[in-house]
Specification:
alpha/beta; Rossmann fold; 2 domains; 8 helices; 7 strands; 14% strand
């Protein structure tokens, strides 16, 4: 399917690896001119090579931490009028909420709530004026199905979800959509580290814990990052213009609820 976004420009946050990189790969393959970012120059250079090898569009990169004002400034200095914005940031560490003080909460909310809001603030009105915009926020299945050891993430991402629900409908009349994409267990470094922490908390060996965890998923396996990237690219397509203000699960059937 031609997603009809060739030549569009995209900022993909935290995209030197993991889910962000998967989204950048999928968009670049559709002919989108992508700007990727990360905090590590070496990882970013490797990502550029990987993405460029499959890209129909231009690939640019900038060393930037999207959770900082300076990092966001750096992104918009390179791409001042993005047509597509993929918000993403590394999740806070797992642990016991009894051990988290104000600073840990402030850092989580800044990284996984405020930074996305500020990226949207900088992008939205320009998208509306140009009559095209696609914003996808990578959150987590934990928004619907909280993970005990991921309290910082649960709280910050749920806050972002509530905020998005309040702003996502009005821009649709200008062909600007805002959706949240909720990954379950997608095979990234972050996923394996979360599972390891969960196994420790449960007093189990990681292999045993993982076998039980994947057994509880309808697909009986973790997701592939390429599968995640493909869904993200579709949400950015012309064909997805009537999808907005949604929380779209990408979890292989992990979440057991009806709604």
């Amino acid at each position: 399917m031609d997603l009809k976004i060739q030549g569009k420009s995209a900022i993909i946050c935290a995209s030197s690896k993991g889910l962000g990189k998967a989204c950048a790969l999928a968009l670049a393959a559709e002919g989108v001119n992508v700007l990727i970012c990360g905090r590590n120059q070496e990882a970013l250079d490797e990502a550029v090579v990987d993405i460029a090898s499959a890209a129909e569009g231009e690939v640019q990169s900038v060393v930037a931490d999207v959770t900082t004002e300076a990092g966001r400034d750096a992104l918009f200095a390179v791409c001042s009028k993005p047509d597509i914005l993929i918000n993403n940031a590394g999740g806070p560490p797992p642990g016991d909420f009894r051990n988290w003080g104000q600073q840990e909460w402030f850092e989580a909310i800044n990284a996984n709530m405020f930074s996305a809001i500020d990226m949207i603030r900088r992008s939205l009105d320009g998208m509306k004026a140009r009559r095209f915009g696609r914003i996808v926020n990578i959150t987590s299945v934990a928004v619907k199905m909280p993970v005990t050891t991921l309290g910082l993430s649960n709280g910050a991402r749920a806050g972002l979800t509530g905020f998005i629900s309040g702003i996502a409908r009005e821009p649709a009349q200008y062909n600007v959509t805002i959706n949240n994409l909720l990954p379950g267990y997608i095979a990234t470094e972050r996923m394996w580290s979360v599972l390891e922490a969960s196994a420790r908390a449960a007093g189990q060996e990681p292999e045993t814990f993982n076998e039980t965890m994947f057994g509880s998923i309808g697909a009986k396996r973790p997701g592939d990052p390429d599968e995640f990237g493909a869904v993200c690219a579709f949400l950015c397509s012309q064909q997805a213009a009537y999808i907005t203000a949604q929380n779209i699960l990408m979890d292989g059937g992990l979440f057991p609820g009806t709604l």
